[in-house]
Amino acid sequence: MEAVSWPAASCSVPLVSSGSGLKQTSLQSTFKSSSRVWLPRQGGLSMRAYCAVASAEVAAEPEQVPLKPILTPAQQALQPAKPPPAESGEIELDPEKLAEEMNTCSPLEIMDRALGMYGNDIAIAFGGAEDVALIEIAHQSARPYRVFTLDTGRMNPETYRFFTEVERHYNIQIEYVFPDAGEVEKLTKDKGMFSFYQDGHEECCNIRRIRPLSKKLQGLRSWITGQRRDQLPVSRGKLPVVQIDPSFDGRDGPETLLKWNPLASMSHNEIWRFLTNMNVPINELHTKGFASIGCEPCTRSILPWQHEREGRWWWEETNSKELGINKGNMNNVRPYRRQQEFGGDLYNNPSIIKFSREEMRALGKTTSREKSGVVCLYAPWCPHCQAMDAAYKELATRLEGTPVYIAKFRADGVNKMMCQQELMMTTFPTILFFPKNSTKFIKYPSERRDINSLHSFVMSFM
């Protein structure tokens, strides 16, 4: 049985007519999720259409007098506004007034309004993550809807399987948008497959995401995104539920593309309560510690206390984490650096050597080493470096008295570029083993940074 959303404060209304008797169902007695109520939907009808059919049935029985709900002023305020019918011509509207009107509406009301206004000229942007909630809400509206996704060619296998599962679950056909093959080929030939680790993600994202999206949106008059204010409070904290898109043009030209954000006011926990309660299919990467999901090389799992966006482009600063798709959110945003969040240092153990910039550079370029050593390239503000603090100090204690030294080098700030160019650093932390009597060094390949894994790595070269 499918369900539709309705405000939890709605009153009792006549829903079902059976024989000569009248069944009255209270919305308050139905299944609740967060502050929203989910009602059975019959025959694919929207909630509004379903109530209309039920009322008609009741009115058709002459011996029965239809019950009229008595609403308090507070309950009247919660009733959804009637959306205007979709039109084939231009829709005249005031975006700011519309945003103010819709600001307190539920995601279902916002979705219903958007689909009702634009019909086939609007589409849902689906990223293959928890934004599947948008498809569930659109499905519950019982209106026709379109879904598209950007296939960059570098998604996780789990994400591709998820696309297929979503298509089967909702009986829809996702519109796949691809980058220009020639542009991708040129970038790869010129800079290799992973240039973004050295010079940032923007160039690759421009080719694989932004330009294909721009081309897609030029055929639409409106689009729907899964952006939320709590995803990046610095840049999205004031995200409206509807706005003129600040970054892209639509079919009708510049500054005409209307962008809807039905989930703007929902929190991460509310989204997941909704997905769980409605038994919505989810990307299996979510069960592996991934919160925000993008391309495979640029996405990784996060630790329990980290913000969900920490798994995206983790080698960059927080104020670089808005994809060009959402750069319009960055207006008037104060530059922000994660270094400000952590004032101390890591790996403070008498057995751990602290290298200077000159010592680190000399170690990487030396022609012969008299002793083997392990060096951690780190940034004290990095949550992954912080999580490894106890294990790395324990490693130094275990190897005390052996012919292997343990050292650390702070590799952010002015040292970052040197470490990237000369020491193969791509992420924090990067752990390097420098063998005795060798000009080379070996990079620890795993993200398992517990004491046993680190100790086993070192001992394999002893």
From TrEMBL:
Residues 333-462 form the Thioredoxin domain. GO terms for biological process: sulfate assimilation, phosphoadenylyl sulfate reduction by phosphoadenylyl-sulfate reductase (thioredoxin). Its cofactor is [4Fe-4S] cluster. This is Thioredoxin domain-containing protein. Pfam families: PAPS_reduct, Thioredoxin. Keywords: Iron, Iron-sulfur, Metal-binding, Oxidoreductase. One of its GO terms (molecular function) is phosphoadenylyl-sulfate reductase (thioredoxin) activity. The keyword Oxidoreductase applies. NCBIfam families: PRK02090.1 (NF002537). Transmembrane segments: none annotated. It comes from the Eukaryota. The keyword Acetylation does not apply. InterPro entries: PAPS/APS_Rdtase, PAPS_reduct_dom, Rossmann-like_a/b/a_fold, Thioredoxin-like_sf, Thioredoxin_CS, Thioredoxin_domain.
